[in-house]
Amino acid sequence: MTLLKERQQRISDAIALETPDRIPIICPGQCYPMYNAGYTTADALYDFDKYIEAMVKYIKQYEPDAYISAVTTAGQGPLMELFRPKSLAWPGAPDNRIDKNSIHQFIEYPVLQEEDMDYFMSDYTGWLLTKGYPAISGLLEPLANWDFFSHSIDVFSVSMVRMLSTPEAREMIRTIWDLSDMIAELDKKNAELIKKAVELGFPSLIGARAIIPFDVYSDFHRGTLETMLDLYEHPEVIRNFTEIFVEKILQNLTRMSKVNPGKWVFIPLHKGMDSFLTDDQYAEFYWPHLQRIINHIIDVGMIPYVYTEGPYNSRVKYLRDVPKGKVVYSFEDADPVYVKKELGDTACLTGFFPIYKLHYGTKQEVIDEVKRLVDILAPGGGYIFSTDAGFDHAKPENVEAMFDTLKTYGKA
Fold first, then answer.
1. Among 112, 144, 207, 394, which residue has the fewest nearby CB atoms (within 10 Å)?
2. What average pLDDT does the structure give for the chain?
3. Are residues 153 and 232 located together in one domain of the fold?
4. Alpha-carbon distance 337 to 344, whole Å?
5. What confidence score (pLDDT) does residue 71 get?
6. 18 and 141 part of one domain
7. Is 310:273 a contact under the CB 8 Å cutoff?
């Protein structure tokens, strides 16, 4: 059996709640592969060839059981300069707002203003075009002046053509075409990296991404603070948006399943953590959509990979209600003993390992923590090792100790 098939089988066994020959190891490393290769995060964003070199070195050196993209914005620096996002700062950007060795930083602010809520609810597409996009992108600011309602449907609308052909609109459209060509080239390079990883014996797992409608509303439309108020002052707006948006997510997942059958769908849970929502609010605004998305991913032949950001102990009771042996749950901050007891016979578990031990701990502390988690989570199968988050400035000796310990102590 080839190394590729061995690794694929190892992962498949764990997802199916069986005991593989060895605990699978999936640690993308975030920015660590770049630093390990002598590059910066800015290099990853502006030179995809360097990113390829760094990732190939990382997987060959540490031999995880799969390739997963580490720097999700790799190669996108030039694209961002053209798109001019107002809600994002990134390493290597001309304004130098953040360090060249940082990951990108999201800048949260309310895009949806309270006075526009009626418009938002009655015509989401119109709001998105004329209010939403101009608020998040310098490139798309001309959309704010597009008034489709002033132009009646006719055989030929001269005024509509004029509106879409102003100097600002022409420049925006040309730049969008340039961006499309650049994205196509970046997709080719990313495909080359995946192909190279597979040729080296490392399966590529992630085939799509999904986000919970409540997180879309909170992250990108209203911001955290305003969303907390909206839960009490405008629950009908949240309810209306999330019910409509979940259908769009399901449609997109169906399309992606035809392109990437059998692949994982990464689902980061941004605002579902303990204490952010009350239990009743989580039960109404969050879990029903997450559950529908999980079930739909399984139905279309893909694998849900759910990353629970922040403390998640109080939400575990909900996570049980999914098909057995079909889901991967990754935990950043939860009690592994409790999670194993509650979910061990339902879903494959991963995460938990604290990245601060890789950054600041001793080699022995890393070894001890790896063994502790293996002893808790491996019995009975259904365990994939990963860190609780991506790691950056880790000590190389600690990363090596983590992988080496797993490949010996993690054998069946």
1. 144
2. 94
3. no
4. 10
5. 86
6. no
7. yes
Percent of the chain topping pLDDT 70: 98
Cβ atoms of 235 and 274 closer than 8 Å: no
Question: For residue 267, what are the β-bridge partners?
Answer: 306
| Best CA proximity match to 307, nearest among 30, 6, 61 | 30
Q: Does the residue 170 lie in any domain?
A: no
The answer to whether residue 172 sits within a structural domain is: no
Residue 234 belongs to a domain = yes
* Confidence at residue 1, expressed as pLDDT on a 0 to 100 scale: 54
Tens-digit pLDDT profile for residues 97-145:
999 999 899 999 999 999 999 999 999 999 999 999 999 999 999 999 8
Q: pLDDT tier at 258 (50, 70, 90 boundaries)?
A: very high
Last residue of a domain, one of 141, 165, 189: 165
**In 3-state terms, what secondary structure has residue 410?**
coil
Tokens read off for 321:
């209600």
Q: What angle do CA 276, 278, 282 make, to 5 degrees?
A: 90
The Cα 406–Cα 36 span in angstroms is 20
Q: Are residues 129 and 187 in the same domain?
A: no
Separation of alpha carbons 374 and 156, rounded Å: 69
Task: Read off the pLDDT of residues 340-355 as tens digits, 9 standing for 90 and up.
Answer: 999 999 999 999 999 9
Question: Does 120 lie in the same domain as 36?
Answer: no
Q: Do 159 and 182 sit in the same domain of this protein?
A: no
Q: In what order do the strands lie in the sheet with 303-311?
A: 206-209, 264-269, 303-311, 328-333, 348-353, 386-387
**Which residue carries 């019910």 as its tokens?**
243
> Quick check: pTM over 0.70?
yes
Output the domain CATH number for residue 388.
Answer: 3.20.20.210
If one counts the domains in the chain, the total is: 2
Residues 195 and 288 in one domain: yes
pLDDT of residue 155: 55
Domain that holds residue 150: 110-165
* Residue 117, helix vs strand vs coil: helix
Distances (CA, A) of 298 to 20, 83, 319: 22, 35, 15
Q: For the chain, first and last CA: distance in Å?
A: 18
pLDDT at 74 over 80: yes
Strand, helix or coil at 268? strand
Angle at 381 between CA 254 and CA 350, to 5 degrees: 60
Helix (H) or strand (E) holding 362: none
Question: What is the Cα–Cα distance from 361 to 354, expressed in whole angstroms?
Answer: 10
Residue 338 lies in a domain: yes
pLDDT attached to residue 381:
96
